[in-house]
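Notes, p. 3: input format for complexes.
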Amino acid sequence: MNILLIEDEPTIAQNIKERLTAELYRVEWANNGITGLNKALFEIYSLIILDILLPGLDGLSILKKLRAEKITTPVLLLTALGDTRSKVDGLDLGADDYLTKPFAMDELSARVRMLLRRKSNQKTSSICIDDLIIDTTKREVTRDGRTINLTSKEFQILEFMAYNKNRALSRLTIAEHIWQDNYDTMTNFVDVHIKNIRKKVDSDSPGKLIQTIRGLGYMIKDE
Ligand code: CA
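Output follows (223 residues plus calcium ion):
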């Protein structure tokens, strides 16, 4: 699980990073709003921990921008004691939860677990892209009503791409999501799987959903 931590106070950031790393999450730290927003826009995370008062760009503006870009990654806001206004605004803007500073690391860890669990529970509906329907509960895929049989890995890759539709995903990002361990040696397998997925999903339809992004990787495009 990749977590993006956008927080400018080094001591707090260090403590959060140490705790979550010890719990086997991968934590990336951005110490200002601009870097944080760019990472959140162009990389894939399971969760974003977002401070409100930040140099460069404040947390609420980052949140607003992410939701406007249809990035639905869960956001845990870190708010200052007594700052009820930001808390309310943050939840209105689509934050999933908040923690008031100062907080105990046990509390943070519990919230993180809860948000990640909630996120995985949401993965029970169907994702529709054009005439492609991915039923993530039954793990069934149809295109224009025709059943498509995928292997388990092919399904995982297609599902991951569908959750991140209209975003270019690098081979490394896909490999990291699918294989976790030793993923850096698996990037060539991504090409092989994509080739097979394409054959099954796109070859019989006029609209090609899976696009190759030169020099980077792949994207599912929803017209
Ligand atoms: Ca701050």
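The radius of gyration is 19 Å.
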